[in-house]
Design goal:
This protein is mostly helical. Helix content is 77%, strand content 0%.
């Protein structure tokens, strides 16, 4: 289907030629909050409807554009998601959350250099409350590019901001394990295991079972059988859904007990 750009241009000009209406913005915020609540409750269809209403009322709101990007990701419509994430950072160039989500999406599209650029934009904003998430995505992008040293540096920088960020602890520890730097890896993975033991089960989903599993492999490489068994038990306990890592750990426990 051929689009009609002239109509879209007229609509856009009509929107931007008027000063913001406080009542429309207030109504948009009501729909935006409703969309967030519906998303949390697991109703993405109604969340989308509310989000689109909010965007129509307040088209210059970066947070609303970002939310629509998230909702389109849930529909596996990455092209539409990218459109909304790009619009969110176009409207507000310092909007770190939009840059970080765009970074993550571009990683999935294997556009690693672009992804890194947006993750860097995210962490440039010193008021961004969770820079560790952008550094983590940056690490993934570098890792998939094959630049392991830069990936490690990104994970480490994220951990400076949040030493308990399990996703980066696990990823960093795995890279050290893969490089056979077992003594370094064990300290990083022990930190991940410590966090996992202190938070409610399921908080980090599969990150905790995998962290315990990697820790057990590292202990085995260091010939620390007793510690390996403890890590395997932690893995089984952390994997409430009895997924792949829980099964691997159960199998290894039968061997090393």
């Amino acid at each position: 289907m051929i689009k009609k750009p002239s109509i879209l241009i007229l609509i856009t000009l009509g929107i931007f030629s008027c000063a913001p209406d406080p009542k429309r913005i207030e109504e948009a915020d009501v729909h935006f909050r409703a969309a967030n609540q519906l998303l949390i409750k697991g109703d993405p269809i109604q969340a989308m409807a509310e989000g689109l209403r909010a965007a129509k009322l307040d088209p210059k709101n970066s947070e609303i554009q970002n939310l629509l990007g998230i909702l389109y990701i849930q529909r596996n419509d990455f092209d539409q998601a990218e459109k909304y994430f790009r619009e969110s950072v176009h409207l507000q160039s310092t909007y770190s959350e939009g840059h970080n989500h765009l970074c993550a999406l571009l990683i999935e599209k294997t556009k690693y250099d672009q992804a890194i650029k947006h993750c860097m934009k995210a962490v440039e904003n010193v008021t961004y409350p969770t820079p560790e998430r952008a550094y983590h995505n940056m690490g993934i992008a570098y890792e998939r590019k094959g630049d392991i040293s830069q990936a490690i540096e990104a994970y480490k920088r994220g951990l400076v901001h949040n030493k308990n960020f399990v996703m980066s602890l696990k990823a960093y520890g795995k890279l050290l394990y893969d490089q056979r730097s077992y003594r370094e890896a064990v300290g990083v993975l022990e930190s991940a295991a410590k966090v996992c033991n202190e938070v409610p089960k399921g908080t980090w989903r599969t990150e905790c079972p995998e962290s315990f599993y990697l820790l057990s492999l590292t202990y085995i490489a260091l010939k620390k059988r007793k510690e390996a068994v403890t890590a395997l038990k932690g893995c089984v306990s952390a994997d409430e859904e009895k997924g792949d890592y829980g099964k691997k750990c159960e199998a290894n426990l039968r061997i090393y007990k």
